[in-house]
Specification:
Blueprint: H1 2-27, H2 34-39, E1 51-55, H3 59-75, E2 80-85, H4 88-97, E3 102-105, H5 111-121, E4 125-129, H6 135-143, E5 147-153, H7 157-165, H8 167-174, E6 179-182, H9 185-193, E7 201-203, H10 207-210, H11 219-228, E8 235-242, H12 246-257, E9 264-270, H13 276-286, E10 290-292, E11 306-308, H14 315-318, E12 324-327, H15 340-344, E13 348-351, H16 359-367, E14 372-373, H17 377-389, H18 391-407, H19 411-424
Parallel strand pairs: 1-2, 1-4, 2-3, 4-5, 5-6, 6-7, 8-9, 8-12, 9-11, 10-11, 12-13, 13-14
Helix pairs in contact: 3-4, 3-19, 5-6, 12-17, 17-18
């Protein structure tokens, strides 16, 4: 089976290699980490401490690990925690966010690469954030005597249907997983039905809630607000984790409403850094004065009521400046982004109709009247206008969102308890 998988992976890479080359040339992707990815040459761990290898695919999963790593550092300082990621943006954020931890690119699922990586890291527990079922990686971990855990386990309907079609193949892999800490009972049952051992599956809730900051007056948000020149009576409309054409939608709403509400400010935070320049061009063509986050504090900064945040990893802090929020990736095919952070700050939250990646969170917020779905630019403009005309409505929407987040706290502590028991049996 490992050799068959190796062949399949090689054929897939050959098929997509023209696209990979184009992405590398045009957008700078896939240009680093080849030794780790293809040969498993990751940092050699020399410590004899108990080790958790935590794998986070990209930016979202890297952020997800923050509360867990903080709690481990406080309660289990005797553990080594190393972090792997797959994407360049994930790597950049992990290095910035976790400077005290060893961070590296996860090897691709070639048998020789994962075997070499396991030999160099020597983990006691391989921790997969949400769900990353790489057969050779999991088998290599088990052969080294490591336990395998899935934390914040999520198995969406689309993924579940796909795995169910190949259940005979997936079931054997699921049985190798020693712990599944699922976000809710629906996901837990899906893991069980695909072959996970019932005694290995636990419902812990979502750690995404635990990572949310609820204090608008935190030092990081205050610093950014001062840097951007935001006044106490400004009303900040923030569109975060956006994709095309969501920035244009937000800009048109701002254009329509800003003459009547001169204290309205717009902050745009695109999801991917390779779109920063495209959004900058959109803003240039709009004729509206704007500035870049990277220019704040510089003598050459032009000022303006519109700000483009052209750095990675700050969105969670910027949400604290917003009274009105739009969570991007929800108008197109991406499936939405994390709406917990703006809700935790008490912003009046909106998002588009396509939120299947956060279906459980979106459903909970809508059930508690803590968010509004906007289906197009006209609905978004009406929502923002309503918030501006009725500040009490916006404040109540934000209060319900913040209360929901606070009520969900505790998943990280439950997850760490399960990991502690698992590591103790290694």
């Amino acid at each position: 089976m490992p050799y068959l998988l190796n062949l399949i992976y090689l054929l897939l890479i050959l098929l997509v290699s023209p696209w990979l080359i184009v992405q590398a040339v045009r957008k700078g992707k896939y240009r680093e980490g080849y030794a780790a990815k293809f040969l498993g040459i990751v940092p050699q761990r020399t410590s004899i401490k108990k080790c958790l290898w935590l794998h986070a695919v990209s930016v979202g999963e890297v952020n997800l690990l923050a509360p867990l790593l903080t709690m481990i550092a406080e309660q289990r300082p005797e553990w080594d925690c190393v972090i792997s990621t797959t994407t360049m943006t994930g790597m950049a954020l992990a290095r910035k966010k976790y400077p005290k931890n060893t961070v590296f690119y996860c090897p691709l699922d070639f048998s020789w690469a994962v075997k070499n990586a396991m030999r160099r890291v020597r983990p006691d527990v391989l921790v997969l954030a949400e769900l990353e079922l790489w057969p050779n990686l999991i088998r290599a971990a088990k052969r080294r005597g490591a336990r395998v855990a899935v934390v914040n386990g999520r198995l969406g309907e689309k993924s579940f249907r796909g795995y169910r079609r190949i259940r005979p193949l997936v079931a054997g892999l699921m049985r190798k997983i020693d712990l599944v800490a699922a976000q809710d009972e629906t996901y837990a049952e899906r893991f069980r039905s695909l072959g996970a051992r019932p005694e290995a599956v636990h419902v812990t809730g979502s750690m995404k809630y635990d990572g949310a900051q609820t204090d608008r007056n935190n030092a990081a948000t205050r610093r950014l607000a001062e840097l951007a020149g935001l006044a106490d009576d400004d009303v900040v409309l923030l569109a975060g984790s956006t994709q095309e054409p969501e920035e244009e939608m937000a800009l048109e709403t701002f254009r329509a409403l800003s003459p009547r509400w001169p204290r309205l400010r717009l902050v745009l935070v695109p999801r991917h850094p390779d779109r920063f320049d495209a959004v900058a061009k959109l803003l240039d063509n709009s004729g509206i004065p704007w500035q870049r986050r990277t220019a704040l504090g510089c003598e050459t900064a032009s000022g303006g009521r519109v700000l483009l945040v052209d750095v990675v990893g700050e969105l969670g802090v910027w949400w604290g400046t917003a009274q009105i929020a739009f969570v991007g990736g929800s108008m197109g095919s991406r499936g939405g982004q994390n709406m917990i952070e703006p809700a935790a700050y008490g912003a009046a939250v909106s998002f588009g109709p396509n939120t299947w990646n956060f279906r459980d969170v979106a459903a909970a917020m809508l059930e508690h009247d803590a968010a509004v779905v906007v289906r197009d630019g006209a609905e978004f403009t009406r929502f923002v206008r309503c918030c501006l005309e009725q500040p009490d409505y916006a404040a109540e929407l934000g209060r319900r969102g913040q209360s929901l987040v606070i009520s969900q706290l505790g998943a990280t502590e439950r997850t760490l308890g399960l990991l502690t028991a698992l590591a103790g049996n290694c």
